[in-house]
C-alpha cells in the first residue's frame, strides 16, 4: 500500500487495507504471524510495532498447527496463542484474531 498524506486519509474507506475505520478514529494494522517466530521474539516484535505507531496486531490462528492430528491439540511453544495475546495486551495494541482453517499468504 502506498504512503498516504493526512488529507487523503479523510477520504479513505475500510476497503483500503491495512487501515480500519471506526466512527471517530483510524487504526493502523500489522500482521504478526506468531507461529512463524519464537515466543522469545514476540515482545520485541510487538514493541517495535507499537513504537512504529501501529494500533492493532492481527494474526491468523493456523489450525493445522493447533490440531496437527484430529483431536490432538497443540498450544505450546510457538503455538501458544494465549501467551501471544497476553504479550500483545501487555504492550497495549489491540489484537485481531482471524480464526482458521483458512489462512491467506499476506
TrEMBL record:
SUPFAM superfamilies, sorted: (Trans)glycosidases (SSF51445)
UniProt-recorded name of the protein: beta-galactosidase
GO biological process per UniProt: carbohydrate metabolic process
Example GO molecular function: beta-galactosidase activity
First-level EC class: hydrolase
Family per similarity comment: Belongs to the glycosyl hydrolase 35 family.
Ranges where the Glycoside hydrolase 35 catalytic domain occurs: 31-106
Keywords of the record: Glycosidase, Hydrolase
Organism: Glycine soja (Wild soybean)
EC identifiers of the protein: 3.2.1.23
Upper lineage: Eukaryota, Viridiplantae, Streptophyta, Embryophyta, Tracheophyta
Enzymatic reactions: Hydrolysis of terminal non-reducing beta-D-galactose residues in beta-D-galactosides
